Amino acid sequence: MSLAAIAVDRTVLELKMYFRERESVFFSFLFPVLMLSLFAAVFGDSFRQGGSELSAAQFFLPGMVAGGVMLTSFQTLALSVSMERDDGTLKRLRSTPMPPVAYFLGKVGLVAATSLAQLALLLVVARLVFDVSLPTEPSAWLTFLWVFLLGVGGGTVLGIAYSTVAGSARSAGAVVIGPLLVLQFISGVYFAYGDIPAWLQQVAALFPLKWVAQGMRSVFYPSAMQTQEVAGSWEHPLTALVLALWLVAGLVLSARTFSWFKRGSV
Q1: How confident is the model at residue 3 (pLDDT cuts 50, 70, 90)?
Q2: Hey, is 52 helix, strand or coil?
Q3: 255 C-beta neighbours (distance < 10 Å), count
Q4: What is the pTM of this model?
Q5: pLDDT digit string (tens) for 52-70?
Q6: What are 166-183's pLDDT values in tens digits?
Q7: Pairwise CA distance, residues 151 & 244, whole Å
Q8: Residue 188: which region, alpha, beta or left (left: phi > 0; alpha: psi -120 to 50)?
Q9: Where are the beta strands (DSSP E) in the chain?
Q10: Residue 266 pLDDT level (bands cut at 50, 70, 90)
Q11: I want to staple 159 with a disulfide (CB 3.0 to 4.6 A). Which of 31, 74, 121, 174 is the partner?
Q12: In this structure, are residues 18 and 77 in contact, taking their beta carbons and an 8 Å threshold?
């Protein structure tokens, strides 16, 4: 079989295994949709931000999209790879004739499929259930495309690299979910970024989630609301630069730290 055919088969297998794990589906796939629905119900029909009246669903949509990107890429891979290493799956795969790159292509296929499916579901719920107005300008969707691709790409390679941090599958949940949850609270996913203390803003700005959320706000918010950003603008060039740097850093870290074997095993 060709490498492409093996990668496709591996992607199908990864998707089957993913959707059999109900906890993974809930916390990485359905969680942003449920949170958007919850916030839209709790915070009512509308409130004002920067002189613009938005529905609660429209206000929280960019953050939920950004959070979903990190959940389906970074969290999914950090957890799954660490567990597969711990239970010996990676060791067994390494001893098969399957090209090693096919394993990673399967993970990329998993992230691509789940990210797109989650995004489609999130936008459908926002539009049909909560009547959120989606962008009509091609430039807005072009911005969405590069922010989404850089976010998913960076989250994927960083998740693979971060999988080595967990010493065992038992500790993987706390090691992965805990820090990511904190980042969601300080990166403008659940709160207006301008309302977060300045020192926490500086911490969040070091990580990609803040920039994905800011990029998504530029897509789904009225252009006048960019004055409410800390820098007074959407900062597209800086957003692209930071996300691209994290993507490169993730590739380097993955190449240098990835191991097929559990710590201490032969």
Answers
A1: confident
A2: strand
A3: 11
A4: 0.92
A5: 678 899 999 999 999 999 9
A6: 767 777 888 888 999 999
A7: 9
A8: left
A9: 47-49, 52-54
A10: low
A11: 74
A12: no
For residue 127 the two structure tokens come to 């539009």
Dist CA 259 CA 167 (whole Å): 12
CB-neighbour burial class of residue 77 (10 A; exposed 0-12, middle 13-18, buried 19+): buried
Q: Are 243 and 145 in contact (CB under 8 A)?
A: no
Residue pair 194/230 in contact by the 8 Å Cβ criterion: yes
Cα radius of gyration (the chain): 19
What's the pLDDT score for residue 264? 61
The answer to whether the beta carbons of residues 72 and 209 sit under 8 Å apart is: no
Residues 6+ apart with CB under 8 A from 5: none
Which two structure tokens, joined as six digits, stand for 152?
Answer: 């998913």
Report pLDDT digits (tens) over 20-37: 888 778 878 889 999 999
Residue 66 backbone zone (phi > 0: left; psi -120 to 50: alpha; other: beta): alpha
Residue 143 carries which side chain, given as an amino acid letter?
T
